[in-house]
Every structure is written in structure tokens, then in C-alpha cells.
Design a protein that fits this description.
Elements: E1 3-5, H1 6-11, H2 13-25, E2 28-32, H3 38-45, E3 78-81, E4 93-98, E5 104-105, E6 108-112, H4 113-123, H5 125-133, E7 136-142, E8 145-151, E9 154-156, E10 162-165, H6 182-196, E11 202-205, E12 211-216, E13 220-224, E14 227-228
Parallel strand pairs: 1-2
Antiparallel strand pairs: 2-12, 3-13, 4-12, 5-14, 6-11, 6-13, 7-8, 9-10
Helix pairs in contact: 4-5, 5-6
Bound molecules: fe (ii) ion.
């Protein structure tokens, strides 16, 4: 797993180029020795580009809450997914800065969704075709917002190569597919979904305070095992 020390990156442009290369090849890196202040994350992201806000603004604070309004705030397990699929332009490169983590369990899960999609294409060409051609509705709604988008599960570039994916079982909306499609789309989605959870594709580890996972949100899916909310803070 590629690792870089944040202060070393600030001081060394050649090392920064290696970070960018690792993002293109592996799709993710772990940064270590992050400063424990809000500005530390901004300073880090701006080393490789401009910050593009999501609906929630330039950053999103993930904490375990007692009365959660978002599953991110709970201690429950989250199946691997890409983030904010209900936004027309979901984030590209995401930074997950771990400030504190003293809870028990709750390992992060990551999988290279583009690699799985490429294998799915060989294993199940018909399923691949329907998941890469048919846009389906995603949603995210709450008291003060209601976001909607249509995305294909597997994204292809102009050469027909897999360029990423959009997947979130929680934010997939009620289907409005044409009548002949559900019989092929749903079974294909289930076959792809179970392939995404195969152990050979899964990376799992516990993030420590001071680390920052930087990943391509269209390629690397993120999730987590359940943690014990009362056991600490994160
Ligand atoms: Fe997520």
C-alpha cells in the first residue's frame, strides 16, 4: 500500500509527483503524519489540485452520533460504495482524514471497483452490458435537501474502457426502468454486487489518528465493518 508522509510531501515536489503517479496507478494512497488541525486537510488537498465542494460544502465531518441523521454517523457496518452518487458530479479524489479513532473494531473496507468491473466483463458479458448502458436513479434526501441523479453502475470512457463506477445500495432509488429491463438489470446488479464483496478484491484495515486515505471515488469503493459506539471516539 503506497504511503507518504504529509510533511515530506510539502517539502519535496518530486515526492509529490510520486504521490500523483500512485493515485493514477493504484487509485489510492495513505498519507501519514497529518497535522491535527482543520487547515491540515485543506493544505494537503491543495498540493495536488483545487477543492471542489459537494452539496455539504468543502468538507464533511464523519462522527458517531447518538441520534444519527446519516448512516455515516452510526457505528453500523457500511457495505462498499462510492460516495455521493446522488450528485450529478460525484467527488473525484476524496480525502478521508482520521483525526481520532479509539473505538473497538470498525475496520475500513476498500475495493478496486474498476478491477472488479473488468473481471465482471469477462465473467458475465451480458450483465456487464446492461450495467454499463442503463442509467438508474439515485437519491439522497433529508429535511433540508433532496438530491437526485441518474448514473450507470459501470462507467465507460470514450474508448469503451471501464473508467469507474457508481454504486450505493442505500442511495439507489425506486426503479423506474422500462418494463423489459428489470428482469435483466436486477439479476446483473446482484451478481455484480456479490462479486464486489469477494475476498480477493477486499482490503481491510483500521485507520489511525494522523492518517489520511486519499482515493479515487469513481474507482475505489469504501465501506466499513461495524464498530462499538460506546467503546471510544471517532
Ligand atoms: Fe462512504
Amino acid at each position: 500500500m503506497p504511503r507518504f508522509s504529509q510533511p515530506a510531501l510539502l517539502a519535496d515536489l518530486a515526492l509529490r509527483a510520486k504521490w500523483i503517479e500512485a493515485m493514477l496507478v493504484e487509485g489510492f494512497v495513505i498519507l501519514t503524519d497529518m497535522p491535527d488541525v482543520d487547515e491540515g486537510l485543506t493544505e494537503t488537498a491543495e498540493m495536488i489540485g483545487r477543492i471542489r465542494p459537494t452539496f455539504f460544502g468543502e468538507y464533511f465531518d464523519v462522527k458517531t452520533h447518538i441520534n444519527p441523521t446519516n448512516t455515516a454517523y452510526t457505528a453500523s457496518a457500511l457495505e462498499p460504495h462510492t460516495d455521493t452518487p446522488a450528485e450529478e458530479h460525484a467527488p473525484g479524489v476524496q480525502f478521508l482524514h482520521c483525526r481520532t479513532n479509539t473505538v473497538e473494531r470498525g475496520n475500513g473496507l476498500y475495493a478496486d471497483g474498476a478491477a472488479v468491473a473488468n473481471d465482471f466483463r469477462k465473467r458475465d458479458p451480458e450483465g456487464f452490458k446492461v450495467l454499463s448502458e442503463v442509467p438508474v436513479p439515485f437519491f439522497s434526501e433529508h429535511d433540508t435537501y433532496d438530491k437526485r441523479s441518474r448514473q450507470t453502475i459501470i462507467e465507460l470512457d470514450q474508448h469503451g474502457e471501464v473508467s469507474g463506477l457508481t454504486i450505493s445500495q442505500r442511495m439507489l432509488d425506486v426503479s423506474d426502468l422500462d418494463q423489459e429491463l428489470p428482469d435483466s438489470w436486477y439479476p446483473a446488479f446482484c451478481r455484480f454486487g456479490s462479486m464486489l464483496q469477494e475476498e480477493q478484491y477486499m482490503m481491510t484495515f483500521l485507520m489511525k489518528a494522523g492518517e489520511c486515505m486519499v482515493f479515487d471515488n469513481h474507482r475505489i469503493m469504501n465501506g466499513r465493518a461495524a464498530s462499538t459506539a460506546e467503546s471510544g471516539e471517532r
